[in-house]
Amino acid sequence: MEGIDIEAAAATFWANAPPINDPVRAAVLSSLQLNCVCTPHTPQPNAVITPSILCPPVLTSDQLLLWTTQAGQFWQDELELKLPNSIIFKLFQVMVKSLDQDTHSNYGAGLLCFTQFCDSTQILEEDRMPASEPLLSAFAASYASTVSDKTLNNWLAGLHYWHIINNATWNVETLANNYHYSNFHIPWTKTTKEMGADISITERKHCTCPLHTLGSHTVINADIPNTAPLFSYKTPNGWLPLTKPHFMSRCNEVWVSQGYPDMPRHAFRISGTTKLLLQGISPDIIATQGRWASQAFLQYWRRIETVLPLFISSSSDVARLHSIDSVMDNFSRKNNLPCTHA
């Protein structure tokens, strides 16, 4: 910073910045500027966003407070109809002061990267907050190999706090071991018909992670109408809903090209169940995840025992397979069902 007049640079920055389109938040910012002097830097070439009145050009540390979306603006407009500005001023001031300056900067950097990601994938401003779980998963996946887990967790924490400041719903759940998961409802299943079912998917540190995959799907197919089925995809002539025959045809095309056998559609259920059992997951949890009653799950297990060799490839899995018999027998006794073996 040799030869640079920091105070003059800061004064020039604030003098040239466009007016902030929110007098209450601007007042909160002014009150905080008295206690902290920040140095503006020339933006890096990769730190550019699409111009928006909702995201004015301000210091990274101020973006949490001064950047918003239509949802945040609507909430504040309603708040101003019910409370005097002095109370709203205090509300924002307390929230902003609860973080130290370094945290403001770190959280702001995450919000900047999130905004750049949304710009690059053409996510509409109204869809950025509340941010859907697939969108947040896709954002995290896009940086998974370029930043550390600590940095990514800080960015997500910053996005969470940005939602809190704007009274927006945060759609990410975090398990005790820092894994993320998502729950959503589907309107129809083969067994429940119109009642549908609640689906739970959990993050996996693997290239097949369902959360990252779902997030990538929603980003790639972002232009599809909201009324389309969840797994619809873009085509040269518009979009199509994903069907089971097309899905299995594509899977088998890939598998066969890599030297694997053609698989039936139940391969996913069979191999998924077997994999979880081999990992030591309780049959009760697997039955719940598969939405089976205890009797139905036991009957299903008996049916797939005859085709297990198709899905067991390593000697270690074969060795562990023998332990599953006792696990399933215990499951049977616990649920007062006939044992799997005589």
Automatic annotation (TrEMBL):
UniProt key word DNA-binding: yes
Keyword DNA-binding: yes
Keywords: DNA-binding
InterPro entries, A to Z: DNA_brk_join_enz, Integrase_recombinase_N, Phage_Integrase-like_Recomb
Superkingdom assignment: Eukaryota
SUPFAM superfamilies reported in the protein's UniProt record: DNA breaking-rejoining enzymes (SSF56349)
GO MF annotation terms: DNA binding
PANTHER family the UniProt entry points to: P CELL-TYPE AGGLUTINATION PROTEIN MAP4-LIKE-RELATED (PTHR34605:SF3), PHAGE_INTEGRASE DOMAIN-CONTAINING PROTEIN (PTHR34605)
Protein name in the entry: Uncharacterized protein
